[in-house]
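Please describe what follows:
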Amino acid sequence: MLNLSEFSILDIVALALFFVVWIGHFYIVNHSRFRHHTITAAMVTMRERWMLNMVKRDRSPFDALIQNGLQQGVLFFGSTSVLLIGGLVAGLGAGDQAVAVLKELPLSTTRSSFQWEIKILLMIFIFVFAFFKFAWSYRLYNYILIMIGAAPHQDEEEEVLKQYAKKLSLLHALAAMHFTTGLNSYFFALSAFTWFLNAWLFIVSTLWVALVLYRRAFRSNFLVIFKTKVHPLSPD
C-alpha cells in the first residue's frame, strides 16, 4: 500500500498541476478552437501543397527522400526513449545512494527511498508515453511512404489528384501530431526532473515549460515570418 504521508500537500498539488497543465496543453493545441492559430495548423497547408506537388510529379524519388528524413528523426527519439527508460529503471535500485546525495543539497525535499522511487516512476511513465507516441508516428510515416508510392498517376483527373493529396496531407499531419506530442513529453520530463529537489521548483518549471510551449505553438518567430506577406525585392 502506498504511504503517501511521506509527501506533503504541496507535493500532491504540484503533481496534480503537472498533469493538468500537460493534458491542458495537448487539448488546447490539438483539439480546442484555438488550434487553428498554431504553427501545426499552418504546416497543414504546406503539407497539402507538398502532397499536391507530389502527385503531379513524374514518379520522382524526391518525396520519398524527404519522408525518409522525417522518419529518421522520429526513429532517433524513439530509440533515445528506450535508452532513457532503461537508465531510469536501473535508477530504481539506487534509491539509498541517490537520497544520500540529495540530502546534501539545501533545497532538496527528497528524504526517503520511497519518494525517490515514486519520482523515478513518474519519469519512466513520461518516457514510456513518449515512446508509444514516437513508435506510432514512425508506423504512420511508413504507411504514408507506401501511399506516396501508390499515388495516382499524374495523368489522372485533377479532382482525383486533389482528393488524394488532401487525404495524404491530413494523414501526414496526424503522424506529425503524434511525433510532436512525444517531443513535448520530453519538455515536461525536464519539468518533472525538478521534483527531485522540491515541489516549488516543480510548480515553477511546469508553468515555465507550458509558457515556452505556448509561445512556440502560437507566438514563435517562425510562425510570425510564415504568416508575413513577403514583398518581392526591388531591382537594383
Q: What stands out?
A: Residues 130 and 183 are 7 Å apart (CA to CA). The chain has one domain: 4-31+38-214.
